[in-house]
Write a structure and sequence with these properties.
heterodimer, A: 123 residues, Rossmann fold, five-stranded parallel beta sheet, 19% strand, globular, B: Beta-Lactamase, five-stranded antiparallel beta sheet, 40% helix, 25% strand
Chain lengths: 123, 487
């Protein structure tokens, strides 16, 4: 069974690269976007994305919070994790079911969060 | 035996040659004059008699002290000789007394030497006409009361009050005194005026009249409460609307406020002391500080995330732990040096040139320079400057290991420019020559991967490698906006 990819949206190339490597090591297929606009193009052209990990502060037409809300309304099956170096976002600003992780991300916590959300790599 | 009063003037009076004086010998004195002289010489109060048309002057020891060095010569002489220097002031009242009109003076100042040094003294006088039984004015009798102590006390009180007023004026906070149950302004210092609006007239008016905009904001109710209960009111960070603009337009301020009841001796509240501190700017400054520390926390976490990614990439792509440790410490060192450049120049002031110089200083030999540099002064934001330093470091490390800098004749050229049809792109070209023959590597080492991550903080960063026979060429580009923006 083909595994559905995870989309990583992060403007910092180094962090995005490392996040992709970490997820790749865990057996996930990873798609990368440097901002919300690139992410939307991927979401619209890919048939299904199992989950999206997005940073909040990014250049481009919208930030990660807007992207998370838009994604939740258009692709309700896509699980969402929001990541930021800022303090946790205001209550209610994230779509229902979305999770927040603080930067720098612990690899262990990321793994646990993905598992809790039911996102698992097929082996 | 009781001590004799006024010994000096008593002796003077006894020994005076009255026979030749205009009041005549003592035997011929009227009963009025005798009586008054007796009273005068028996009194501890300073007393003065001015008698007859010649205005002959008699006085006791108390009065003698006021005369200073004019005593004893003045005794028995016309009054005008004694006070010749202030006669224009004395003449009208002595003439009035002789015309039957008494005068009372509250506070006359004398410098007296009674204690061996010049001393300011104050006396109250009353000039009383003395008549014979038929009503004719015979002379004038004057009793004096020393007021020095009372005057000094009043003066001390006044000085104290003036000092308090000065303290009030110098106070950094606004101070006002309100009197009575209607809270009438009795006093307000400059700071208070500048807080409510400089040109407003408030003294003598009630708060409700003078600063009417506070009525609907509930402040009169609070004042009433303090007046009624005697309980002070203390509050911080009150938002208040005051018509304090130059044209009386309303402005919002934040104040710390204290209403303190002022009491009479019997304990009843008679007024309220208002202390108000305009903390609008202070609170704004504190909010700015808070925002700044949030921002610092945010940056710190982002940089930790960057270090985490670099550490992870280094460990992931190194052949062994020893070389990983060395590479990691080099990379963190480069970031630290780039930070120094950012901080030294002031945020937003670092230039590509500074970052390039920094890398050259660790990878080139000044005695035998092999890296040439050319480029205009281009400013670079702090996020891209960290990535650019790291990229240059990785390129230089790579060149030293495998590229042009691994052979004595190899050269590196670093050029950068603002480019693009709209001059809205930054481009840096790293080109190597004179090194070993180049070929595209089959796998990307950790250094190459870090370079490929591009320039942080830019929205459109590109990294392109090409491998012409002469040597490796790397072109790094980014949108100029993002490249120069301070995040």
């Amino acid at each position: 069974m083909a595994q559905l990819p995870i989309l990583v949206v992060e403007d910092d190339g180094l962090i995005r690269m490392d996040l992709a490597d970490v997820l790749g090591d865990s057996g996930f297929t990873v798609l990368e976007a440097a901002n919300a606009d690139q992410a939307l193009v991927i979401l619209e052209t890919q048939t299904t994305v199992s989950a999206m990990l997005t940073d909040i502060d990014m250049p481009g037409s919208m930030n990660g919070i807007k992207l998370a809300n838009l994604t939740a309304s258009r692709w309700p099956d896509c699980k969402i994790i929001v990541i930021s170096g800022r303090y946790s976002p205001d209550q209610g600003s994230l779509p229902e079911g979305a999770r927040f992780l603080s930067k720098p991300i612990s690899e262990r916590l990321l793994g646990a969060t993905l598992a809790e959300m039911g996102i698992e790599a097929t082996t | 035996m009781a001590l004799e009063t006024n010994p000096e003037c008593r002796r003077l009076c006894n020994e005076f040659d009255w026979d030749t004086a205009s009041v005549g010998p003592v035997d011929g004195w009227s009963v009025e004059l005798r009586t008054l002289v007796n009273v005068m010489l028996g009194s501890l109060q300073p007393m003065l008699i001015v008698w007859g048309p010649s205005q002959t002057t008699l006085y006791n020891d108390g009065y003698a002290a006021m005369c200073g060095h004019r005593h004893p010569a003045a005794f028995g002489r016309p009054f005008g000789e004694l006070w010749h220097d202030i006669w224009d002031q004395v003449e009208p009242i002595i003439s009035a007394a002789f015309a039957g009109q008494g005068t009372s003076m509250e506070d006359i100042e004398f410098v007296m030497h009674r204690n061996g040094y010049p001393e300011e003294t104050h006396f109250a006088f009353s000039y009383t006409p003395v008549r014979d039984p038929w009503g004719t004015v015979l002379g004038m009798f004057c009793a004096c009361t020393e007021q020095t102590a009372t005057v000094a006390e009043r003066k001390a009180e006044r000085t104290l009050r003036e000092r308090f007023e000065q303290v009030f004026e110098l106070s950094p906070g606004g101070i006002a005194l309100l009197g009575g149950p209607d809270h009438v302004f009795e006093y307000a210092n400059e700071v208070y005026y500048s807080m409510i609006g400089t040109d407003r007239e408030i003294i003598g008016k009630t708060v409700a009249d003078a600063v009417s905009e506070v009525v609907r904001q509930g402040y009169i109710d609070i004042l009433d409460g303090v007046y009624r209960t005697g309980e002070p009111f203390v509050a911080k960070n009150l938002e208040i609307e005051l018509n304090r603009g130059t044209a009386g337009e309303k402005q919002n301020r934040v104040i710390d406020l204290v209403y303190q009841p002022m009491r009479e001796d019997d304990g009843t509240v008679s007024g309220i002391l208002v202390q108000a501190l305009d903390v609008t700017d202070l609170r704004a400054e504190q909010q700015k500080q808070e925002l700044l520390s949030h921002e610092l926390g945010h940056r710190l976490k982002n940089q930790l995330a960057m270090i985490q990614a670099i550490a992870s990439q280094t460990l992931r792509n190194s052949p062994d732990l020893a070389s990983a440790r060395l590479r990691l410490s080099d990379r963190i060192g480069v970031l630290s040096a780039a930070h120094d450049t950012i901080l030294l120049g002031g945020v937003g002031a670092s230039t590509v040139n500074q970052l390039v110089e920094q890398i050259i200083s660790t990878h080139d030999d000044p005695a035998n320079p092999r890296i040439t540099v050319s480029g205009t002064r281009v400013k670079v934001g702090s996020r891209p400057s960290l990535s650019l330093s790291l990229i240059l470091h990785e390129l230089a490390t790579n060149a030293t290991k495998f590229g042009a800098l691994s052979e004595p004749d190899g050269r590196v050229s670093i050029r950068w420019m603002v480019t693009g049809p709209k001059s809205d792109r930054f481009e840096l070209i790293w080109s190597e020559s004179g090194g070993p023959p180049v070929a595209q590597p089959e796998t990307l080492g950790s250094g190459m991967r870090l370079i490929n991550a591009g320039l942080n903080g830019t929205s459109d960063s590109t990294v392109e490698f090409s491998y012409p026979p002469d040597g490796l060429v790397c072109v790094i580009g980014a949108d100029l906006d993002g490249f120069q923006q301070e995040h």
